[in-house]
Amino acid sequence: MPIRTSRRRFLLAGATASAALAAPWVSKAQSLKSEYKVSVVGNRPIALSEGAFQWAELVTQRTQGRINMKVYPGSQLVGGDQTRELVAMRQGVIDMTVSSTINLSPQIREMNLFSLPFLMPGPAAFDALIGGEVGQDLFRVLATRDVVPVAWGENGFREISNSKRPIRTPADLRGMKIRFAAGAIFSEIYTAMGANPVQMSFADLQPALSTGAVDGQENPVNLFLAFKMDTLAQRHLSVWNYCADAGIFHVAKPVFDSFSAQDREIVVESAREAARRQIAAARRGLGIGGDTRDSFEELKRRNVEVQELTPAEKAEFARVTRPVFDKWAEQVGRDLVRKAEAAIARVRA
Fold it and tell me: What's the rounded Cα separation, in Å, for the pair 273 and 58?
């Protein structure tokens, strides 16, 4: 067959492997967008957002600018409503996201696994889930939603702060207005402890704290510091690790499929590198794995009263919220939850 005919067929249908090897990205270059929109909640310097920016920078650099990823922080492409990012990806409004599993959970029930109260005692348990069969199962679920998950990240364990008083027992939460991001499970968790849960986007959180519209919120320590929540009347912070905020780097399937094999590899490997950095940033200064406790020292300098709950105190919160756990375990899927509990038991042994 003449070379010209073979190349014409490749350009029209992408059919032959030999042509793909001869021109690994020339045909794809003709269909590349001038910009690929990346959505993420929040902004630098929080770990989740930082991961998105680093992913974009790595891909742009490694493709010499052929794939130009631009990050739109604050979920601005969906009007600040981070729970709509998945829908917007499927509609073609967003090309890529770094999403919290919390914000995916309203559409994908299995993602509520990370929100089951007191399932994971710490980072080792979290790592066992994202690095094992559970993480693979969740990626397979996500892949049925017209997106391609490429890396697991982390925004950190979610702790609770408020403007009223120290929290060491469930009774201490009684009557408090506590903001949560998304998902009916959080409303039920706080209702079980006698609090008044209020769903609110992250964009609306800071003004709500400053005006007293809500008394408290739950977010990772390093996010608390980055957004200076101590200046928003949040004087009390309790470290209870009640759930973790997992992050997922993913690409809209039509976008991923439009890339050459070479470019797909760049996108995936860059996401994994950015995710590793993201996880390290989420844990920095928290005394994890022999690291410093600089973040706690900074809280002390800002006159934030920190309560680090004992295992016995956490167990009391777990007891009170157990009915919520059991109900939502059914929603997530009992087999998946049992698999998660087994993986966590192995790292605790």
Answer: 9
One DSSP character per residue, 260-324 reads -HHHHHHHHHHHHHHHHHHHHHHHTTTTGGG---HHHHHHHHTT-EEEE--HHHHHHHHHHTHHH
Q: Which residues contact 154 (CB under 8 A, 6 or more apart)?
A: 47, 126, 130, 244, 245, 246, 247, 278, 279, 282, 283
Give pLDDT tens digits for 286-322: 999 889 999 999 999 999 999 999 999 999 999 999 9
pLDDT in tens, 100-154: 998 899 899 999 999 999 999 999 999 999 999 999 999 999 999 999 999 999 9
Beta carbons within 8 Å of 338's beta carbon, 6+ residues apart: none
Residue carrying the six token digits 């406790």: 293
* Residue 48, CA distances (Å) to 70, 75, 114, 124, 305 in order: 15, 12, 16, 19, 25
Query: What pLDDT is recorded for position 349?
Result: 60
**Amino acid making up residue 19:** A
CA-closest candidate to residue 186, choices 174, 200, 175: 200
CA dihedral 43, 45, 47, 50 (to 10 degrees): 70
**Residue 258, CB-side half-sphere exposure with 13 Å CA sphere:** 14
Question: Scanning the structure block, which residue is given the tokens 């490749």?
Answer: 10
Residue 3 pLDDT > 60: no
> 37: part of which helix (H) or strand (E)?
strand 36-40
Please check whether residue 175 is in contact with residue 51, taking contact to mean a CB–CB distance below 8 angstroms.
no
Residue 258 has pLDDT above 70, yes or no: yes
Q: How far is CA 249 from the centre of its chain?
A: 8
Amino acid of residue 73? P
